[in-house]
Amino acid sequence: MKYINYHQFNISTRMLRRIGFILLALCVSTTIGLTFLTPTRAAPVLKEIDLPASSSAPWGITLDKQGNEWIAVPQCDPKPFLCQSTLQGQLIQVDVSTFTVKNIFQQPANHSSPFFVAAAPDGSLWFTEPASHALGQLFPNLHNPAASIWKLWTIADANPFTLTFDTYGNIWFTDPLNNRIGWFQPTLHRYHLTAIPTAASQPYGITRDEHTGQIWFTENNSAVAQLASFFPSITGTLTTQAIKEYPVERNGTNTTPHLLTTDGRGNVWWTGGFDGNIGRLIIKDAQPGTSNGMKQWNTPVDEHTSGIAVAPNGVVWFTDSNGDSVLSFDPASEQFTTTKLSTNAHPHDGLTVHGNQVFFTEEFANKAGTIQN
């Protein structure tokens, strides 16, 4: 074996040391530079407020164009999809900028237990009343809540649960107890009910794809476990055959597709309920009767994934009600973050996003929360 004699090249030990220090400095500076160039997400900042003592079981949530958060308070935990007695609920107004309760709107005697709420362009609020077989409407007087106007529109033999607006301004709602999808015209007060193709599927969450106008909903029965979609007509005419269904790959008997949303990027995202998953369906790859285009992720808390919304940056936010947590998921890195709440907080179906701020309700803790990220 031959050894190199560095002295042949006039390289001194001191010079070798200097070269080594220079190389080390270059490595350190490169590492630091890459660290600063690598984007990182800020740690979530949690804020919670107590809701009034007169409130119980805050549920659905929406934001209006005036910067108000609205919370539906049914005053009960539904078993399974409505209160077992007639209770007058509330709609609570929260100021988003200060995150404080501004007003409480107490339902009059002919109303009962609002569960989900949606803000209309005219400033009114629409909400479901499954125990009253009705949709309700509130024209809030923000200066004098007692002077607000409440309206009730009965839909015979239906128990409306979740709701969304279509591109025509009409309301579509799920009716899980009767296995139907409903349509309601807010001006003429007409309605139409359509049976779901699969019996006993229990349609639960419902949403609209902003790009195509397509309506998507979940089928919550674990024996069925599907997503479904249709294209709404302006007249509300919808046949059972026009509803297309897409089976979700099941995790034993625990898969109960819960709520869902679209992300503006051509995807549907849903929570899997008791299987603890979240899922994504690429709409262009969807084929009725198949799971094509679907992918699911098991989540860190893995108890009951419930509410779900997607932020403008593409990050998916969702709640785990039984795990007392609010989580986010970055589809690009497939990484989760978890914000743990107090024991038995039970953040359930109430969750929405505005910019980089997340809003949610805590059903059993009687609180509202927000996360800035």
Automatic annotation (TrEMBL):
Instruction: Note the Pfam families from the entry.
Output: Vgb_lyase
So which domain of life are we looking at? Answer: Bacteria
Q: Which SUPFAM superfamilies does the UniProt record give?
A: Calcium-dependent phosphotriesterase
PANTHER family according to UniProt: VIRGINIAMYCIN B LYASE
Q: What is this protein called?
A: Lyase
